[in-house]
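Chapter summary example.
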Amino acid sequence: MATVELRPGPVPPYEQIRAQIAELIAIGTLPAGHRLPSIRQLAADLGVATGTVARAYQEMEIAGLVRTRGSGGTVVASRRTGEQLDPAGRLSALALSFVTAARRLGADDAAILESVRGSL
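The structure predicted for these 120 residues follows.
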């Protein structure tokens, strides 16, 4: 799997994990059917509690980005051709992508909000 990195700051670790994996799914780096690392493995790799990774995976499952198959682990959910997220889901995915990219540029919450307000 592509690297997930945690950065110090106001964004909770579970949200950083969720946002980065969601972005990798959105841009196709993690294709449908790709198996994600186990919760324990990713937690060990990142040096966080297993509950932190579990919450990130749970949030992605609720959003329809991944599915858990018991002993088969957590995999990127497939979407049938033409299947799209509902409008709120699409908006959330776009916002997530923007915030993730802005954070990578070093933008803080105030700068991100100012940019969005300016775009409106």
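To summarize the output: The chain has a mean pLDDT of 85.
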